[in-house]
User: What shape does this take?
Amino acid sequence: MKINIEVDLTPDEARRMLGLPDLAPMQEELVAQISDQIKRNVAYIDPELLVKTALPVGLEGVDRLQKVLWSVAKSAVGDGAGATKSDSPAPKKAAKSRSRRS
Assistant: This one.
Protein backbone atom coordinates (compact mmCIF):
# COMPACT_ATOMS: atom_id res chain seq x y z
CA MET A 1 0.00 0.00 0.00
CA LYS A 2 1.33 3.43 -0.98
CA ILE A 3 0.13 6.73 0.38
CA ASN A 4 1.37 9.98 -1.13
CA ILE A 5 0.67 13.27 0.60
CA GLU A 6 1.54 16.44 -1.23
CA VAL A 7 1.63 19.68 0.73
CA ASP A 8 2.02 23.02 -1.03
CA LEU A 9 3.48 25.47 1.49
CA THR A 10 5.71 28.49 1.41
CA PRO A 11 8.85 28.26 3.58
CA ASP A 12 7.26 30.63 6.10
CA GLU A 13 4.10 28.50 6.30
CA ALA A 14 6.15 25.32 6.72
CA ARG A 15 8.18 26.93 9.52
CA ARG A 16 5.03 27.98 11.36
CA MET A 17 3.41 24.57 10.81
CA LEU A 18 6.44 22.84 12.36
CA GLY A 19 6.48 25.30 15.26
CA LEU A 20 9.91 26.70 14.48
CA PRO A 21 10.74 30.27 15.61
CA ASP A 22 10.97 33.17 13.16
CA LEU A 23 14.63 34.13 13.11
CA ALA A 24 14.36 36.87 10.47
CA PRO A 25 14.27 39.82 12.95
CA MET A 26 17.27 38.44 14.84
CA GLN A 27 19.16 37.89 11.58
CA GLU A 28 18.42 41.42 10.37
CA GLU A 29 19.63 42.88 13.67
CA LEU A 30 22.80 40.79 13.58
CA VAL A 31 23.55 41.78 9.99
CA ALA A 32 23.02 45.45 10.88
CA GLN A 33 25.41 45.17 13.86
CA ILE A 34 28.10 43.47 11.77
CA SER A 35 27.67 46.02 9.00
CA ASP A 36 28.03 48.91 11.47
CA GLN A 37 31.13 47.33 13.01
CA ILE A 38 32.73 46.88 9.58
CA LYS A 39 31.97 50.50 8.67
CA ARG A 40 33.55 51.73 11.93
CA ASN A 41 36.67 49.58 11.51
CA VAL A 42 37.36 50.44 7.87
CA ALA A 43 39.00 53.69 8.99
CA TYR A 44 41.53 51.74 11.07
CA ILE A 45 42.72 49.40 8.34
CA ASP A 46 46.43 49.80 7.73
CA PRO A 47 47.48 48.52 4.29
CA GLU A 48 51.03 47.87 5.49
CA LEU A 49 49.75 45.74 8.37
CA LEU A 50 47.58 43.75 5.94
CA VAL A 51 50.60 43.04 3.72
CA LYS A 52 52.71 42.03 6.73
CA THR A 53 49.95 39.71 7.89
CA ALA A 54 49.56 38.12 4.45
CA LEU A 55 53.32 37.88 3.88
CA PRO A 56 54.93 37.41 7.29
CA VAL A 57 58.44 37.05 5.89
CA GLY A 58 57.99 39.98 3.51
CA LEU A 59 59.26 39.94 -0.02
CA GLU A 60 61.72 37.15 0.77
CA GLY A 61 58.74 34.87 1.28
CA VAL A 62 57.35 35.82 -2.12
CA ASP A 63 60.73 35.13 -3.75
CA ARG A 64 60.95 31.72 -2.06
CA LEU A 65 57.41 30.86 -3.08
CA GLN A 66 58.15 31.89 -6.66
CA LYS A 67 61.29 29.72 -6.74
CA VAL A 68 59.38 26.74 -5.38
CA LEU A 69 56.61 27.16 -7.94
CA TRP A 70 59.13 27.51 -10.78
CA SER A 71 61.00 24.38 -9.70
CA VAL A 72 57.73 22.44 -9.50
CA ALA A 73 56.70 23.67 -12.94
CA LYS A 74 60.09 22.84 -14.44
CA SER A 75 60.18 19.38 -12.93
CA ALA A 76 56.66 18.72 -14.22
CA VAL A 77 57.86 19.54 -17.74
CA GLY A 78 61.14 17.70 -17.27
CA ASP A 79 63.48 20.69 -17.50
CA GLY A 80 64.16 21.00 -13.77
CA ALA A 81 67.77 21.05 -12.67
CA GLY A 82 67.08 18.75 -9.73
CA ALA A 83 64.65 16.49 -11.53
CA THR A 84 66.07 13.43 -13.17
CA LYS A 85 64.32 10.52 -14.72
CA SER A 86 64.85 8.49 -11.57
CA ASP A 87 63.16 11.24 -9.52
CA SER A 88 60.00 11.19 -11.57
CA PRO A 89 57.51 8.41 -10.93
CA ALA A 90 57.14 5.73 -13.56
CA PRO A 91 54.01 6.03 -15.65
CA LYS A 92 51.25 3.75 -14.52
CA LYS A 93 49.69 1.33 -16.91
CA ALA A 94 45.97 1.59 -17.35
CA ALA A 95 44.03 -1.33 -15.96
CA LYS A 96 42.35 -3.45 -18.57
CA SER A 97 38.62 -3.50 -18.25
CA ARG A 98 36.78 -6.70 -18.88
CA SER A 99 33.19 -6.61 -19.88
CA ARG A 100 30.91 -9.48 -19.11
CA ARG A 101 27.97 -10.44 -21.16
CA SER A 102 25.21 -12.41 -19.65
The chain is about 50% helix and 0% strand. The two ends are 34 Å apart (CA to CA). Residues 83-88 have pLDDT under 50 and may be disordered.
